[in-house]
């Protein structure tokens, strides 16, 4: 019997945020990220029969998403190639400075920082997926999307004190989870 | 029991600490929290963990779908799932 079962009915609630976060850190465009996540779910549906159950559903969906991201870059690169405009850097004003201007800024974020921040984002989503649904939702709205307290209370029809209780429980659970996996 | 103006309980300290992570604690509340932190080890440990969590979230590239975006995705996905079945 396979280790993991496939159940597309729970994909959106369980994996959409994780996949979206994974994608947006790689494409830096919200609309493109949404499209790629949607394409991944659709492709997953089409190839459900190929799911062997050896890896988790999420790992399997991520492997599809990775291919979608690569395809996206292939596509934009081939478009770029067609419309390439070659520009010559040298002109009289900047002559002699080209190498210096191209040196990486040592105070800028490094590639390692970027990778670490991306992995940290995924670790946060891992911990979020372990929270009860309501706590995860309130934590996302308040902490990640930065909604005002009043807006969340109106949306979820809860009182402010109720919201803070939920936030407190979510933060305790998140801090404990992050302590085990990240800090 | 009469509630003190200056001294707060551990639960209240945690609540103020949570609010201050979102910039929603008043100066007076922060003062009371700091007073509590000066002698309460439990509150200090909680505040330390809470700040570390805030720092982690702020430093990360964490993002997620907005409710309307997720609902939109769910509608399209459900329709695709329905067509496939």
TrEMBL record, chain A:
Gene Ontology BP, a term: DNA-templated transcription initiation
Domain of life: Bacteria
Pfam family, one: Sigma70_r4_2
GO molecular function, one term: sigma factor activity
Keywords linked to the UniProt accession: DNA-binding, Sigma factor, Transcription, Transcription regulation
Record InterPro entries: RNA_pol_sigma-70-like, RNA_pol_sigma-70_dom, RNA_pol_sigma70_r2, RNA_pol_sigma70_r4_t2, RNA_pol_sigma_r2, RNA_pol_sigma_r3/r4-like, WH-like_DNA-bd_sf
SUPFAM superfamilies reported in the protein's UniProt record: Sigma2 domain of RNA polymerase sigma factors (SSF88946), Sigma3 and sigma4 domains of RNA polymerase sigma factors (SSF88659)
Domain RNA polymerase sigma factor 70 region 4 type: 123-174
Keyword field contains ATP-binding: no
Residue intervals of the RNA polymerase sigma-70 region domain: 12-75
Protein's UniProt keywords contain Flavoprotein: no
NCBIfam families referenced in this protein's UniProt entry, alphabetically: sigma70-ECF
PANTHER family: RNA POLYMERASE ECF-TYPE SIGMA FACTO (PTHR43133), RNA POLYMERASE SIGMA FACTOR HI_1459-RELATED (PTHR43133:SF8)
Family membership noted in the UniProt record: Belongs to the sigma-70 factor family. ECF subfamily.
Protein name: RNA polymerase sigma-70 factor (ECF subfamily)
Lineage, uppermost ranks: Bacteria, Pseudomonadati, Bacteroidota, Flavobacteriia, Flavobacteriales
From TrEMBL, chain B:
Name listed for the protein in its UniProt record: Glycine dehydrogenase
């Amino acid at each position: 019997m396979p280790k993991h079962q496939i159940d597309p009915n729970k994909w959106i609630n369980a994996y959409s945020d994780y996949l979206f976060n994974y994608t947006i850190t790689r494409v830096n465009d919200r609309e493109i990220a949404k499209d790629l996540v949607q394409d991944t779910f659709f492709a997953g549906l089409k190839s459900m029969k190929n799911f062997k159950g050896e890896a988790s559903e999420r790992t399997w969906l991520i492997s599809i998403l990775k291919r979608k991201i690569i395809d996206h870059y292939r596509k934009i690169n081939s478009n770029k190639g067609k419309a390439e405009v070659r520009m010559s850097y040298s002109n009289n004003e900047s002559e002699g400075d080209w190498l210096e201007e191209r040196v990486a800024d040592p105070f800028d974020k490094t590639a390692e920082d970027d990778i670490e921040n991306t992995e940290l984002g995924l670790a946060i989503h891992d911990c979020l997926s372990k929270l009860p649904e309501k706590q995860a939702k309130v934590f996302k709205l308040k902490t990640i999307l930065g909604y005002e307290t009043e807006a969340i209370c109106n949306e979820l029809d809860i009182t402010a004190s109720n919201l803070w209780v939920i936030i407190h429980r979510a933060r305790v659970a998140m801090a404990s989870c992050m302590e085990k996996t990240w800090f | 029991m009469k509630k003190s103006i200056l001294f707060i309980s551990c639960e209240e300290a945690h609540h103020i600490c949570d609010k201050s992570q979102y910039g929603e604690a008043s100066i007076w509340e922060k003062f009371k929290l700091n007073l509590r932190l000066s002698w309460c080890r439990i509150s200090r440990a909680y505040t330390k963990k809470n700040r570390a969590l805030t720092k982690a979230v702020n430093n990360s590239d964490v993002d997620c779908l907005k409710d309307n975006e997720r609902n939109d995705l769910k509608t399209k996905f459900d329709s695709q799932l329905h067509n496939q079945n």
